[in-house]
Specification:
alpha+beta; four-stranded mixed β-sheet; rod-shaped; Cyt_B5-like_heme/steroid_sf
Length: 160
């Protein structure tokens, strides 16, 4: 799915995955049932009827999945208002299929689709899920424009 995510933590991710898995299992059971009914049907009308039911359920599942992905995509656009604590940011380290986020100068960027950040790691042992403002300033002096090309997913909370 996703390539910038609107997560509220690990539980939200698991809930979403389980919801999709449950829907898929339910659709699969229905389609298998219709397939069996089609196999044992004795006339062409019944065979066509069950074929139509299978196609309808497949189309419904595809539409439902597309809607879920679209709503997630729309949620991505709302993430710029999200405020991350350093603890929350650390979850988005690019491991186990999670997105890779880094904070630089108060903004949180999604680097998941950047090849140089593959697996949530970058040159010189830098890891996603951290505030890398100091490292960015020392390595990319005068190159702040490169950040404009990255999706902003939020801001970092000020420490109190």
């Amino acid at each position: 799915m996703n390539q910038a995510y609107n997560y509220n933590g690990k539980a939200a991710y698991n809930l979403e995955s389980n919801e999709i898995r449950n829907k898929l299992n339910n659709y699969q059971k229905e389609i298998i049932h219709y397939s069996q009914m089609q196999t044992f049907s004795r006339n062409l009308y019944e065979k066509n009827y069950y074929q139509g039911l299978m196609q309808n359920r497949t189309d419904n599942f595809a539409a439902e999945l597309e809607e879920m992905l679209l709503s997630e995509s729309l949620a991505e656009n709302d993430t710029e208002d999200r405020v991350f604590t350093l603890s929350e940011l650390s979850y988005f380290d690019g491991s186990e299929g999670r997105p890779a986020y880094v904070a630089v100068n108060g903004k949180v960027y999604d680097v998941s689709n950047i090849a140089a950040w593959g697996g949530g790691t970058h040159f010189a042992g830098l890891r996603a899920g951290n505030d890398l403002s100091g490292q960015f300033a020392s390595c990319h002096r005068g190159m702040a424009a490169m950040l404009d090309q990255l999706p902003v997913v939020g801001t970092i909370a000020l420490e109190e």
